Amino acid sequence: MLRGSVVRVHTLLKSATGLQNGLQPLAAGSTRFMSKENTETDAQFDQRYENFFNNPQIDGWDVRRGVTDLLGHDLVPEPKILIAALNACRRNNDLALAVRILEALKNKCGSKVNEIYPWYIQEMRPTLTELGIPTPEELGYDKPELALENVDDM
Amino acid sequence: MANSLLARTTSRLIKNAITKPMIVQTAASSDGGSYVRTLIGKREVVGFGYNGEPTYVDRVDFPLPAIRWKEPTTDILALREKEKGDWKQLSIEEKKALYRASFRQTFAEFKAPNGEWKGTIGITLLFVSFAFWIFFGLKTFVYPPLPQSFTPENRAAQLRRIIDLQINPIEGISSKWDYEKDDWKK
Fold first, then answer.
1. pTM of the prediction?
2. How many angstroms separate the CA of residue A42 from the nearest CA in chain B?
3. CB contacts < 8 A (A, B)
């Protein structure tokens, strides 16, 4: 009987202090977790991803994770980030991954692909030549390679 | 009757719930991972993919699948050894072979239109035409003929009466009627 009431008082006290210390009331003036609170500048963003890909420790899994993450943003990443990513592919001996990243970049250019994509290739050309990475165009991957002939054209 | 049915269903459900996971567990435990891993053969798991399962899907939003497309054969393993050297030494064919070992289709291939919309529209129209058959069938065999008020003479008479009663005289139908000339306003 006594024990029961002691426990009840304890929980009451706990919830009361918890409200005072930890939990903020949901009234106006409390912190709102909104995306505009993100204070990272574009330069910091670029630097963060460049550092990630320049880390000599990362393996193929991490490169894939980083690229998926990067391409998930509403932007076309800077050439220097992609150069770092391509170098990471080189360190992990994965040529297919490098070509796939270039393809994904081209897809990411969207409707502006004719304006943006050639500039990217031009910016990355030294790295591509140095590492021997072919562009998708050089492999003939800008058009469907294994496609069947369209039945309407036969 | 209902009670015995319920009892049988419940007992079967419980039985399934107990035995099924055990089967999966034994299959997975022999391979030390998820059940899907037993399906992919010797394919190398290289990433997270789009949901963490070791499956291969060509997707635009997740361009890097979790596993490589081909199982490593001796040819591919030899190529991978060569890949560790200078990539400039690789021929275009070898680079393509490496790409196809990792990925099934290029972006250009899996984004190419496949003409599926034609079949979809065709089948949709099939169902729409079927609905038309039902509609005309009902009209012919089920519904009584339309009431008298739908005949052209009756509808003309009704219009005449609307005009005579000057219904909607400001902006509606009677405002367009010239009562002096007894005709529509020009």
1. 0.69
2. 22
3. 95
